[in-house]
Amino acid sequence: MSDVVLKVDGLGKAFARNGKRVAAVSDASFSVGAGETLGIVGPSGSGKSTLSRLVLRLIEPDAGSVRFDGGDLLTLRGAALRSVRQRIQMVFQDPLAAFNPRAEVAEVISDPLRIHRLVARVDRPAAVAHLLDRVGLPGVLAERAIHEISGGQRQRVAIARALASQPKLIVLDEAVSALDVSVRAHILRLLVDLQAETGVSYMFVSHDIAVVKAIAHRVAIMDQGRIVETGPTGQVIAAPQSPTGKALVAAVPRLLQAQD
Ligand SMILES: Nc1ncnc2c1ncn2[C@@H]1O[C@H](COP(=O)(O)OP(=O)(O)OP(=O)(O)O)[C@@H](O)[C@H]1O
C-alpha cells in the first residue's frame, strides 16, 4: 500500500450522559494512505463526528493512538502541534457556522496563509485569486462576505481555505450533505480533481453511502461507535458483510446499478 498518512489504533471516547458513560467511539482502528480517500459511513449517532473530532484532536480520546505523518498526534504540544494543524485540515457541513459570516471571502482564505506564514502579505491577494481559481470560483468573489454567497460557493471557499495550508490530510465531515444534488456532484468532482493534482488524502465522513461511493477508495462502516466493516468501496457495496452495511446499501436501491 501507499505511504500511510493517518493511522488510528484502538481509539475510544465515552461521554457522560445522565450520570452514565456512553461510548461514542469504541476500539476504532484504520489507516489512510497518501492520496487515498477513506469513507466513514454509518447511521446517525454511530460515532462518525466524534471520530473526526478525535482525529482532528478537537477532543481528547480515552484510549488508543493516532499517528499522523509518522508522528504521535496525541502527545504533540506547542509548535509541533501547530505544524500538524497546518497539515491536517477540515471541511464541515456548515461553513456559515465555521466562519464569521460577515468576513470577506479573501480574509477567510488568506487567514491560514498569514497564520502559518506561508505567503508574504503583498503576495496574498494573488494567492487568494489562485486558490479561488483552483476551486472554480471567480476572482470577484474575493470581496464578497461569506453570508452573501451561495451554500455551494461557501463550501468551495471552505475547500480553498483548507488547500491554502497545503495539507496532507483533509477531514470532511458531512461536507456535501447540505448541498442540493447537482451542486453536490460538482463539489465531489472538484475534490477528486484536487486529490489527483495534489495527492492530498481525505477522510470523508457521511451518512450517505451513495455519496461515499462517488469519492472513496475504501470505506469503513460504523455502528454504535464501532467500525463493523472495512474494504474497497466497490466491494463493500457489491457484497456488504455486516448487518449495518447491508442496511445502508439496501436503503439506496439504485446504488448497485449506478455506473458512476
Ligand atoms: N459532546 C457530547 N456529549 C455527550 N454525548 C455526545 C457528545 N457528542 C456525541 N455524543 C454521543 O455520542 C454518540 C455518537 O455521536 P456522533 O455525533 O459522533 O455520531 P454521528 O454518527 O456523527 O451522528 P450524526 O450523523 O447524527 O451526526 C451519540 O450517541 C451522541 O449522542
UniProtKB/TrEMBL annotation:
Keyword Nucleotide-binding: yes
The keyword ATP-binding appears for this protein: yes
Domain called ABC transporter: residue spans: 6-249
Keywords, in A-Z order: ATP-binding, Nucleotide-binding, Transport
Organism superkingdom: Bacteria
GO biological process terms, semicolon-separated: transmembrane transport
Record-linked SMART domains: AAA (SM00382)
Signal sequence interval, chain numbering: none
Protein name from the UniProt record: Peptide ABC transporter ATP-binding protein
Organism encoding this protein: Devosia epidermidihirudinis
